[in-house]
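Quick one:
INPUT:
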């Protein structure tokens, strides 16, 4: 794909509807897209443990945001994820 070219022909609203529908079916609660992104970022950082590789995979320009996720790993992840989902 070229820069800015969508991977799928879906509107933002359609993506939100899909996210909400399947999170209700699977998790019995509606999740925001940001919740999925944060959970993915935590999983990547927990698995790889290399800040430079994580930054590239997550698309962060600087190390600051990746550092926030790495600091979150020092806390109990279960509590953090439940708190993020319950917003």
């Amino acid at each position: 794909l070229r820069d800015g070219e969508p991977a799928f022909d879906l509107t933002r609203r359609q993506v939100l509807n899909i996210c909400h529908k399947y999170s209700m079916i699977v998790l019995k609660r509606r999740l925001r897209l940001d919740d999925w992104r944060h959970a993915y970022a935590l999983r990547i950082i927990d698995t790889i443990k290399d800040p430079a590789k994580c930054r590239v995979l997550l698309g962060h320009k600087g190390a600051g945001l990746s550092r926030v996720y790495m600091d979150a790993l020092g806390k109990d992840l279960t509590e953090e994820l439940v708190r993020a989902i319950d917003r």
